[in-house]
Amino acid sequence: MERLNKFKLYEYEISFNIDKKITKQKLKKFLVFLSNYLLKEKSILKDIQISLKKPKSYRTFRLKKQLTNTNNPLYTELEKKYICTLHLSTTPHILDEIIYNLKIQKISSNIMAIKHLKNV
């Protein structure tokens, strides 16, 4: 296996479970933060897929209404477990930062797979 240069761009695909207690708004804020961070670091977020955990099932968010005063659907928790897949071009160092942020911001505690697709 070749050794990765920590300053060179590589294509990756990261799949992780989105924790059930995350609201749609928090996930949206995290994805906006992530895309801005990657642009600043000269990396590219090529694609985001959010799907139900069932295979071959790509559905939109289904939100469960909470018993709170707020009627805004952005503040409701996710009803089922979702998988998020990010396809991006970045350096190994920035990839480590992304994984760290996923855990520290409590978006996901379960990173399922990181695939190194190709050199850019």
Write up what this structure looks like.
The chain has two helices and four strands; from the N terminus they run βαββαβ. It has 120 residues and is of the alpha+beta class. It has a four-stranded antiparallel beta sheet. It is globular. The two termini are 17 Å apart. Keywords: Mitochondrion.
Fold-level CATH name: Alpha-Beta Plaits
Biggest sheet character: 4 strands, antiparallel
Label the CATH architecture.
2-Layer Sandwich
SSE string, helices as H and strands as E: EHEEHE
Keywords for this entry:
120 residues; 4-stranded antiparallel sheet; alpha+beta; 2 helices
Task: Summarize the structure in short.
This protein has two helices and four strands, in the order βαββαβ. The protein has 120 residues and is α+β, with helices and mostly antiparallel strands.
Topology summary:
Layout: E1 10-18, H1 24-40, E2 44-52, E3 82-90, H2 92-104, E4 110-119
